[in-house]
Design brief:
Length: 431
């Protein structure tokens, strides 16, 4: 998911909800009103002293606050800059960690689609990858823990029975333990599927996949670590107290120096210091859905799942083309054999392609006229549990598609989802 901003949203007064103004306008209004009132108090005193009158205690208080305000500016600027730099670093790091989980999940799907030959094993491993991803996303949202396992079972990501019981025994879903269990299940299934591959692929493929698994598990755990160890509350309270005192001191400190210009000066000072403090506090938890710029974790889930389906639908059929399955836009390897097949509408010389009987004898035509044909030994009967291909029908007919759409998902969400040229996708039942 790409977050973009329209030119209208870049204008503050046309998009107030996404700015810091809703958080600071009360304080800005208060300091400006206070500065306006102090101007009416200080202006007569200033005129009296200017005309040779005595300097009263209020006169000295105003000027002493002016000097003290300059001293506080340096300290508040330092502590606020350090706080914002620390908070933004944590916010950006959590963003990178979430991106690592999303990206490594798709990268693992690429490897599985390229090498795993069994469709059912591929679907099972994708399900476990998505289960671990879902557990990671829900672990950072405390409000989603209630009934989570039941939702995962209903969504097709978690199997009832042993899997449900294993996760139910975890002390908390807001920890990395359930995520580690799900990745452990995935590693176990991958190890079983790896035995069916040539031994020359075992070492490299195992290292690549396990590196991704370790990175995903570590990134998910690091996100929880950052959330569980926020900036010390005492530091945040000290900062807030200093900033509030500073902006309340601004009117009495700026009035002797600027007089009536102190009113807009207090607005700018409050907006900068109090505003940056509010922005830093909003970034403490980037998963808080009350924040306008909170991470769209549900979009992360569906976006990653759809990306995995798109990768599988492209990589899996392309790899099987080496064993006899080819897309419609692939040219036959043997033109003569294809031409012979075109005359009788049959496969000749073991070619994996057959040509429509209505084509010319020369066998020359558009590649789109080619229809993929597989040897009977390669395709199990339609509806069997180990079927090589499944067509897109509905979430009820495809457990993998149901898991990808999630609860409340609809087939309309797949309108942008491209099918391969042969019309098939892994994870969808035969029609």
């Amino acid at each position: 998911m790409t977050v973009t901003y329209s030119p209208r949203e870049l204008l503050v007064f046309s998009h107030l909800k996404g700015t810091v103004l809703p958080e600071v306008w009360r304080m800005c209004a208060f300091t400006c009103a206070l500065a306006y009132a102090l101007c009416h108090i200080y202006n007569p005193i200033r005129r009296t002293v200017r005309d040779g009158g005595p300097k009263t205690i209020l006169y000295y208080i105003f000027h002493d606050c002016d000097a003290f305000f300059g001293l506080c500016t340096s300290f508040v600027t330092f502590i606020l800059s350090f706080f914002n730099a620390t908070i933004f670093g944590r916010w950006w790091k959590m963003r990178e960690l979430c991106g690592t989980v999303n990206g490594r999940t798709v990268d693992t799907c690429v490897l599985l689609s390229a090498y795993i030959k069994d469709q059912e094993k591929l679907d099972e491993m994708l399900r476990l990858l998505w289960l671990a991803h879902a557990l990671h996303v829900h672990s950072v949202i405390p409000s989603s823990h209630a009934g989570l396992l039941a939702q995962l079972v209903e969504g097709g990501l978690l199997m009832p029975g042993e899997e449900h019981a294993a996760l139910q025994q975890c002390s908390s879903l807001a920890s990395s333990t359930p995520i580690s269990i799900a990745y452990g299940w995935f590693s176990s299934r991958f190890g079983e599927a790896l035995l069916a591959l040539p031994p020359s692929l075992h070492s490299g493929l195992l290292m690549s996949v396990q590196t991704n698994v370790s990175a995903m598990r570590a990134s998910a755990a690091d996100v929880l670590m950052y959330l569980a160890t926020p900036v010390p509350l005492a530091y945040t309270h000290l900062l807030e107290m200093m900033v509030v005192m500073y902006v309340l001191m601004a009117p009495i400190g700026l009035v002797p120096r600027l007089l009536w210009m102190a009113v807009p000066g207090c607005f700018v000072t409050t907006l900068i210091f109090y505003g940056f403090m509010c922005v830093g506090k909003l970034m403490l938890n980037p998963f808080d859905q009350k924040m306008a710029d909170a991470f769209e974790v549900n979009a992360f889930l569906k976006g990653t799942r759809f990306a995995c389906l798109e990768v599988s639908s492209a990589v899996f059929p392309a790899r099987l083309g080496e064993e006899g399955l080819r897309f419609r836009n692939d040219k036959p390897a043997d033109t003569a054999a294809t031409a012979a097949a075109g005359k009788g509408g049959k496969v000749a010389n073991g070619s994996a392609h057959r040509v429509d009987s209505g084509r010319s004898d020369s066998g020359e035509g558009s590649p789109r006229d080619l229809v993929p044909a597989l040897r009977p030994s390669q395709i199990p009967p339609s509806g069997s549990e180990d079927g090589l291909r499944r067509r897109r029908q509905s979430p009820h007919d495809s457990p993998l598609l149901s898991a990808a759409l999630g609860l409340g998902g609809s087939m309309e969400e797949l309108a942008r989802f491209p099918l391969p040229m042969d019309g098939h996708m892994p994870g969808f039942k035969d029609s």
